[in-house]
Here is the input.
Amino acid sequence: MDIYQKFEEIGLRKKSAAAYLALLRLQKANAHQIAKEAGIERTTIYNILKELTQKQLVTESRTGKRIAYLAESPTRFH
Here is the structure.
């Protein structure tokens, strides 16, 4: 089973899964960095990050006006 199929089983589309995997690689990043790493347009990444945050797979960290994102552990898929 491919990892994207596993993500589909829990309700994530391919772009959402790509963004989550990119954030796992980056560990902590802003939206622009995640979009670049995942190969997704920056304008699209904000909706994806909102979805991932609602599913509690991503956490936001705010410093003033800047927002950094952190991926939650993938062990929650077990």
About this structure: The first helix runs from residue 3 to 9. The radius of gyration is 12 Å. The chain has a mean pLDDT of 90.
